[in-house]
């Protein structure tokens, strides 16, 4: 795949990545010989038809699931043949996750939810707490929120807290699966603004979405159909209200048959 001039070095690459599920005695080939490069510092968006294999690809790239065949390299190290235990360590050190369902722990304060993630890789509680508070402030969640419980937050506030939890260990890549899928448009925009800001500071993001407003935030769009990459669109960095970018994305998606 051609490399956008604005992109950095490949942070993840795949070689003939395949994923097959067996269900009810039938084999379903979901990812078919994918050769992909994801570049450092990019906001990569994965779009495509329903069932195309977008989430399956995201889970394979992040080491949440293992490929059936093929190789995945993360920063030049092969991760596709790691044991489950080593993959768990790899994810803890390198990956942050943001999902449509927010999965904060109900019986802990927002700050504790974030601290507990940080303590998985460091025992320096004071430093983690400082980083957590700093990040919470950056995403617009001030001190009055820190000691609340998840059920006392709006959906948008909870998703911003979940982004902080994903960032607290300073991961190389944030993997997001429909992060605005359960949010109203205002909360969705606030979540996208945070992800955009985080990416502008250099954080690599890979996001699966059906939502065109979310997709606009990416600088590189991969379009999947039936387990393959059907097309790639390099949009350049997001600039609010840039009509040329919007038109380019629309005509790419039309071309892909979206
Ligand atoms: N663990 C599993 N076992 C069996 N089949 C699975 C499993 N996970 C996913 N699939 C199948 O793989 C296909 C692709 O699923 P995936 O969730 O990757 O698609 P998607 O492109 O993200 O779809 P959507 O946009 O609808 O969420 C689907 O047909 C799904 O049923």
TrEMBL record:
The keyword Ribosomal protein does not apply. GO terms for molecular function: ATP binding; ATP hydrolysis activity. Residues 12-251 form the ABC transporter domain. The keyword ATP-binding applies. Pfam families: ABC_tran (PF00005). Keywords: ATP-binding, Nucleotide-binding, Transport. Transmembrane segments: none annotated. Belongs to the ABC transporter superfamily. This is ABC transporter ATP-binding protein. It comes from Alkalicella caledoniensis. The lineage of its organism: Bacteria, Bacillati, Bacillota, Clostridia, Eubacteriales.
């Amino acid at each position: 795949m051609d490399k956008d001039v604005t992109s950095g070095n490949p942070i993840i690459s795949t070689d003939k990545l395949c994923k097959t599920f067996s269900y009810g005695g039938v084999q379903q080939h979901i990812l078919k010989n994918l050769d992909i490069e994801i570049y450092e510092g990019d906001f990569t968006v994965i779009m495509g038809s329903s069932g195309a294999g977008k989430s399956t690809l995201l889970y394979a790239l992040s080491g949440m699931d293992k490929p059936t065949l093929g190789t995945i390299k993360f920063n030049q190290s092969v991760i596709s043949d790691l044991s489950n235990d080593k993959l768990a360590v790899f994810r803890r050190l390198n990956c942050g996750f943001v999902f449509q369902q927010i999965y904060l722990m109900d019986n802990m304060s927002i700050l504790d939810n974030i601290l507990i993630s940080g303590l998985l890789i460091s025992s320096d509680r004071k430093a983690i707490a400082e980083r957590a508070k700093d990040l919470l402030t950056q995403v617009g969640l001030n001190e009055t929120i820190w000691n609340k419980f998840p059920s006392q937050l709006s959906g948008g506030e909870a998703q911003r807290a979940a982004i902080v939890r994903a960032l607290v260990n300073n991961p190389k890549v944030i993997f997001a699966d429909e992060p605005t899928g359960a949010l109203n448009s205002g909360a969705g925009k606030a979540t996208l603004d945070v992800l955009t800001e985080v990416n502008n500071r250099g954080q690599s993001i890979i996001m699966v979405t059906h939502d065109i407003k979310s997709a606009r935030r990416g600088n590189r769009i991969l379009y999947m159909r039936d387990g393959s990459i059907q097309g790639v669109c390099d949009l350049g960095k997001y600039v609010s209200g840039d009509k040329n970018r919007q038109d380019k994305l629309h005509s790419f998606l039309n071309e892909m048959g979206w």
